[in-house]
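Structure, all two chains, one model.
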Amino acid sequence: MKMILGLMILFSLSSCFEIIEELDLKKDHSGDFTYTLNMSSSRLELNTLLKLDSFKGRAIPSPKNITADMDKAILLIRQSAGINKAVYTKNWEDYIFEFKISFDSLAALDRALNQTYQKLSKSKEPLKDRLLMTNGMLKRTSRLNRLSWFKKLNSKEIQDLSKANYTCVYRFQEMIKSQSNTHTNTSKNGMALLLKSDIKSLLNQQKSIANTIKF
Amino acid sequence: MNRTLILLFLSAAFSYTAHAQSLINQVPANASMVMEMNLKSIKIHMGDKVSSLDKDMSLSFFKYRSMPFAKLFNSSQSGMSMNKKAYFFMHEGNTYWALPLEDSRLFKTRIQEVAASSRYASNKQNFKFKTAKGAETLFDENYGVVIKDNTAILTKGSRVNTYNSYGGNYQLKDALRAFMRDQGITDKDQEVSLAIKEKIEELIANHDKELVETKKQESQERIAELERMDRTNLDMATDEAIDEVAVEAAAEAVEEATEEYYEEYDMVEEAAEEVLDMDEINAPTYRYDWSHPCIQAFDAAWEQYKLRKKESAYDLQIEEMTRRALQFMNQNEGNSILSNNQFTSDFSSTHDMGVWISEIFPFQFSDMVNKGMNKMLHWPEMNSLLSGNHGVVYMDVKDQSIDIVGSQSTGKVWSKYQMMNSRPVNKKIIKYLPKTTFGVYAMNINQNEMYDMYYDFSKKMIATLQPRRGMDYSAMVDLFDMFINKDMLLNTLSGDAIVALTGTTKMISSKRKYRFDSSAFKRTWQMVPDTSVIPEMMSVFTIKNQANLEKLLATLIKLKVLKKKGKNYFIDMDSRYKSYGKRKEDPLKTMWTMGIEKNMFFITNSREVQQNKGLIKHGAKKEMNKEICTLLKKEGNFFYWAHETGMNAIPWEDMGSKRTMQSAMMSANYFKSAKMVSKQTGKNSYAINASFNFNEQKKENAVLQLIEMVQKMNERF
């Protein structure tokens, strides 16, 4: 899920971006997971930033290096058992990057993302952001502020992320009986959930994307 | 505004004359740069606020060890007198501080504390002052303090390096190995006999003797070379040069000794590998590798030798530094900078801070810069244009402003070029500036004179290249001069121009917006306009020959660099990019509009001008910043920044950072404006006038406001 570490560095330097996490889950618990990074509103800043070697004391990765990281991430995900398809699209003109993973089960998705995160971030700590199905309930756990990259941000940098947003959309093939996150909205058809939050609130733990969904 | 700026302003003390026992007598006549600081002014203007200065603002006494200004500027804590003037000067490439003392005992104690205060202090030394020729001295390697009566001179010499990964002493070890073979010592012997010890000492002693002889010879050659140098500009004292050379020679000897050690180490390693390969073919002779006790005894002795050499190099240097400091302390007015006619006619001692730069300033680095690869720079030739240039800069703190005044006298060579026009810039320009203008940089130059200067400078530079077959490469510049279209280059624009920050403008780009329908949160997206607000900039140049300019613009249109739309010109160079098969305009390139308006060529990112298809006549002289109007009317070369107006005009809230906005607003509460005017006042003289203005509503003076502003800006919001 947070596999494109190179892009994360660009986030810290541009305060305006959007992350969209989408889950389309079928009845047999297979499905598609889509992760979109939309930095089109910071396009002008990023055009300039990518021409620099470093900014505010941080090294700026080149598009070539970022692409290499993304290739590596998608390869690692593909190699994981239970992953049917893993592709990504990159749009360097508008700075939009989209990852799409088709999986057999949520456990396979969880394993693939965790392994990839640990390998790319060279962290032994497992990913705290998980999507797991237990006892007929979908559990979304999240500790965004514990991710290795976000941990590097100081309070002033977090303050500057007020225009950065995180959106979660979960679509199912059955009716949702209940969900635990008070910031989440349910669709009219009762089979989808939507949560929108600014990243600053998530990092400051004023809001969370964690949820327990019952069917 | 950063800390460096504060330090600079803090360093500026204020008007007070106390010539009795003035330390200016201690500045040598041939100092290349002198800075005078009135410490009493610091005391008067900063008062108790001195103690609130950040501890990082400090004066360095020893390597990585310094005393914070908060302590130094407090006489009861440092022992330094705050009723006199302090001097910083450069002499033959070295820098010195002369500080007045009130309580030399206390100052000594503080210096000892500073010397022993960090892990960088050389641990072999007990930091106690020594007595030398009536003065008390404390040195730590190349740093030192010399105190006599109520004066302290801080000195810094060159560092003696003991590390270098190149070079070696393998020849000495080879000689030792040969001796060991003669003595019948085997690889397995563990004893280091007396004979071996004596041999090691003999080898090192002979090496040292040889080294000293070589260096002495080299020193004599260098002194002879120095004597051959043109004394009119450099004016170096020979005996001092000899001393310096001797110190340098000793330092080089240590470096060489170190180099040899490392080279030897590498060679032995390589040799060991080679011998190892040969082992497979022949039975080995005794090779005495690095771990052999005799070789290790040599290494230990060599280490001791290096240390001795380093210490002796520093001893020599300390002796020389002490001698110089005492020479400065004991000299009378006749040998001081007060006997330098150029200084006395240039410099006035009535300011808070004054800096004098002598005409020899650039030349003192010639010897240093001309070493090794840098020799290619041909420093003396490059600086020959500056020969005879000298000047002063003064800084005074007024109630709510910090004023800077400077003047420069140019030498015979530089005076040939009258590059600065004193007349104001085109008076029509002001009509096109809006009332929101908050920053202007104006220049009025004589392009022909500037071309002549670059022509002569290039010729001098190229002439220094090593010629082949006696060729004079400077003729290439003549060739360029012959073929260039000087009418196009020098007569298209008249040489006066402004760059102004005129307010803010909108820049419209696009961004992708994702939408989720309400029934099932299905995703769709579309590109929507994305408007950002950026500072608006306008450059205006007066045209001398419009036909020339139009010809140039027409050529650029043919080359697809520009495109013309109505009266205006726009950038056409690669200004589109493809996104999802559609070609889009790049707003960063398309925002610039160019055009010709009433004999003026303009470039701006103003949306208003772009949409208006031409420059807009505002006629806002009466509502504009008064200072900007006056400067535009009277001056040709100036810079003005209306800080408060600028900070209020820039839409910080749209720029995404609350912190930056708060900092900007905070600074506007203190700092109001900055102004700098420069002009040519005569054939061979230039003047500069600048002021940094602070809030007149506040009762604190400019320095206190500056300190408070920086402290508040550093606070976390």
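Chain B touches chain A through 28 residues (CB under 8 Å).
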